[in-house]
Design goal:
mainly alpha, two-stranded antiparallel ribbon, 11 helices, 62% helix, 2% strand, 3-oxo-5-alpha-steroid 4-dehydrogenase activity, Polyprenal reductase, oxidoreductase, 3-oxo-5_a-steroid_4-DH_C, membrane
Length: 323
């Protein structure tokens, strides 16, 4: 019965060319742009249920809460869960593409069938990216997932009082699921009738090399910014946690913007999106990430200004000197 249902869904996806991954990110974009715009422009006129659901962390909703929304909140520390998932899912993708290139063989049938199901059907999926480029992109995103797994599970200090809506928790899982699937969806060796090419450094273009360097720079700077936030809650001499309060960060890129970790997240996804230039899904992923990080950075910037009277006036929200 289950197999029959899956077969029927596959036929439906094939017939109507439904790209589930693209649909997910389009929904994410519309939701964040619509709600984000309302939150930044007319928040005071919105129901408390929407305000409470949208906000979390340092800029969480203050004031009267909605009873139903209260039941749908989970600890913000659960952020670490979807990085556990991203850690394993990204390494699986890295294994699959490395194995395909090493063996010079098309991916296994179960992988092709899964990609057909998620990405519009077998007739819709075409090779748009060579295996060299996909390997580079998969390695870079895997590095990000591994580092964030380490940070959220072993370094980051979450406030025990900090909550987030269950929807934020679910979106984290879906984001990494979709982004990692998109790495392989239109890659040579992962489309029927195609095979990966041997990996050689000589095939890496100057532009690709530049994106790798920019990505790694952003990766390191995001880590440094996150460590500055972590150290705010530690005793400088003993390293012991001494507070769970949100304090004003200083130093590094925090001298220029309120959320450098969000800025560098956008930079990294821009590099990935441009590496996978022909793939529409990766353009959608970038728009989603940029929109989400920008809205959160604006709310964070507003919170800093409201809570610290001596907050530096020259500091912008997310883009140095601009926004």
């Amino acid at each position: 019965m289950v197999l029959a249902l899956i077969g029927s869904l596959e036929e439906l996806i094939e017939q109507y060319k439904i790209n589930l991954i693209q649909a997910i990110f389009i929904i994410f974009i519309v939701t964040i742009v619509l709600l984000g715009s309302l939150m930044t422009l007319v928040e005071s006129h919105l129901p408390n249920s929407i305000r409470q659901s949208f906000r979390y962390g340092k800029h969480s909703h203050k004031g009267e809460t909605d009873t139903l929304v209260n039941y749908l909140e989970v600890p913000k520390a659960w952020f670490s869960h979807f990085y556990v998932f991203a850690f394993g899912w990204s390494l699986l993708a890295l294994y699959l593409i490395t194995s395909a290139i090493w063996n010079q063989a098309t991916a296994p049938e179960y992988v092709l069938r899964f990609l057909d199901f998620m990405c519009g059907g077998r007739s819709q999926r075409q090779v748009q990216v060579d295996s060299n480029t996909a390997l580079i992109g998969t390695l870079l995103l895997s590095l990000q997932c591994v580092r964030r797994f380490y940070e959220t599970n072993f370094v980051q200090i979450f406030s025990k009082r900090s909550k987030m809506n269950l929807s934020h928790y679910a979106v984290g899982f879906v984001h990494y699921f979709g982004a990692i699937v998109a790495l392989l969806s239109n890659t040579a060796g992962f489309v029927r009738g195609s095979k990966p090419s041997p990996f050689t450094l000589s095939k890496i273009s100057l532009l690709q090399s530049a994106y790798v360097l920019v990505f790694l720079f952003a990766w390191l700077q995001q880590y440094s910014s996150n460590m500055l936030l972590v150290n705010l809650r530690k005793n400088a001499k003993t390293g012991a946690v001494q507070t769970e309060e949100h304090l004003m960060p200083k130093g590094g890129w925090f001298n220029w913007i309120s959320s450098p970790h969000m800025f560098f997240e956008v930079v990294m996804y821009y590099c990935l999106a441009d590496l996978f230039t022909p793939i529409i899904t990766w353009k959608l992923i970038f728009i989603w990430v940029a929109s989400n990080q920008t809205i959160n950075a604006l709310l964070t910037h507003q919170w800093y200004k409201e809570n610290f009277k001596d907050y530096p006036k020259r500091r912008h929200a997310i883009i140095p000197l601009l926004l």
